[in-house]
Amino acid sequence: MAFFDLPLDKLQTYLLPDNEPADFDAFWKSTLEETAKFPLDGRYERVEESTLRLVDAYDVTFAGFGGHPIKGWFLEPAGNTKRLPCVVGYQGYSGGRGLAFEHVFWAAAGFTTFFMDSRGQGAASYGSPGCTPDPVGSGPQTPGFMTRGIESRETYYYRRLFTDAARMVDLATSHAHVDPARIAVAGGSQGGGISIAAAALAPSKVKLCLPDVPFLCAYKRATDIVDSSPYSEISHYLQGLRGRSEEVFKTLAYFDGVNFAPRITARCLFSVGLMDITCPPSTVYAAFNRVKSPKEIRVYDYNNHEGGGGYQVGEKLRFAAKWL
Q1: Using one digit for the tens of pLDDT, what is the confidence trace for 78-123?
Q2: Does 224 participate in catalysis according to the annotation?
Q3: What percent of the chain stands above pLDDT 90?
Q4: What is the pLDDT of residues 131-162, one digit of tens each?
Q5: Which of 85, 144, 163, 267 fits as disulfide partner to 65, beta carbons 3.0 to 4.6 Å?
Q6: At 314, is the secondary structure helix, strand, or coil?
């Protein structure tokens, strides 16, 4: 893949026209208040996995949006009894929480970690398995989740998923082995977009935000310049339902990382691939450039959506060790 987006010097100052809804904060305040009526009801079941000798793992269930049961994992260094810093992780598009041993990295580095299952996702053969259904139906949609419930902000799929993510931060702060003053949110692609939303929705609880090649940012810009999946789901939806583009992008503005970004108070470490045809560089910078808190970005110039790969894992580890 060749370079196709703006040159780096333009990206570093790139801003989109403001499309933030006037009632953005009111919408999310009411959404979180509605879900707060349901007790978190966090439940933990020890995973008896003989191969995990240095890490203790737990199968987690908690109440997310609408009180719906959401699955996840909790891992910590074996035998831990102290309050440690915690990294709350979110999955990429189409994947579920996977298997417990796939998430031992942060615990092996001395952190506690939660990892959230993405409701309704994890059934695709190329993704990690999931086990959390999404009990809310929707109107017409293309395959996938980008258009599920897109008829309105109240029914859109990511209203539920972002609320689940904020609730998992609440769950982390309530755990006896987590230092509530040292919590990070992290994820790649969709997980990066969820991290941005979670940090904005729980600003007093999230100290670090670590989104890699984040998805769910600058939807309109993305559909204008790439036809790759998953953004193409929006384009395909609009091909079939002509004349609905203004309405659709009005809904999406409530779920755009560009609009969540200025509400983040956490210290941020982003990453971007300058050849990324899944999450174009300008969409990443459109969100990054609106963050007002201390921030850094790692640029991988000849990389596509894999971004920094293992190199970026090392960057996050060093960043978390310094600031968390």
Answers
A1: 999 999 999 999 999 999 999 999 999 999 999 999 999 999 999 8
A2: no
A3: 93
A4: 999 999 878 777 899 999 999 999 999 999 99
A5: 163
A6: helix
Q: Which of 68, 103, 236, 305 is catalytic?
A: 305
Instruction: Report the C-alpha gap between 57 and 46 in whole angstroms.
Output: 6
- In whole angstroms, what is the distance from residue 57 CA to residue 74 CA? 6
Q: Which of 117, 164, 256, 276 is catalytic?
A: 276
pLDDT digits 0-9 by tens, 58-69: 999 999 999 999
Please identify which of the residues 94, 189, 195, 282 carries the catalytic annotation. 189
148-160 burial, b at 16+ Cβ within 10 Å, e below that, comes to: bbbbebebbbbbb
Query: Would the pTM of this model clear 0.85, i.e. be above it?
Result: yes
Number of other CB atoms surrounding residue 82 within 10 Å: 11
> Is 138 tagged catalytic?
no
String of b and e for 16-32 (b: at least 16 CB within 10 Å)? Answer: beeeeeeebeeebeebb
Instruction: Please check whether the domain covering 8-323 is classified as CATH 3.40.50.1820.
Output: yes
- Report the C-alpha gap between 125 and 128 in whole angstroms: 8
**Would you place residue 126 in the very low, low, confident or very high pLDDT band (cuts 50, 70, 90)?**
low
**Is 305 considered catalytic here?**
yes
Secondary structure letter of residue 261 according to DSSP? G
- C-alpha 117, offset from chain centre: 11
pLDDT of residue 89: 98
Helices (H), the chain: 8-11, 24-36, 105-108, 157-174, 190-201, 219-225, 232-240, 245-252, 257-260, 281-288, 309-323
